[in-house]
Amino acid sequence: MLDRDYGRSPHPPTCTCVACTERRNRRSGRRSVGDRLTGSGGNWGVMIGAAVVIVVIVAIILALG
Fold it and tell me: Tens place of pLDDT for every residue, the chain, 65 residues?
């Protein structure tokens, strides 16, 4: 590791701590997972609908068996 890399930050360039990751994501224009879920509403409606269908199918199979 070169000394100049640590001159900019106390963390190495490949650091994956939360602060370094968020700083890199901000620079590249990426949003965090929490922002993506709350901003777009996520796929909760689809996931809940799929879960209900699975529960109903399992209940029917158990009732018939």
Answer: 455 545 666 788 788 888 888 888 777 766 666 665 555 556 777 888 899 999 999 999 999 97
d(Cα 21, Cα 27) in Å, to the nearest integer? 10
Q: Which structure tokens are listed for 57?
A: 């199918």
Q: pTM higher than 0.70 for the full model?
A: no
Burial (CB < 10 A; 0-12, 13-18, 19+), residue 23, is middle
Distance, in Å, from the CA atom of 8 to the CA atom of 28, rounded to the nearest integer, reads 18
Cα–Cα dist 42/36, whole Å? 7
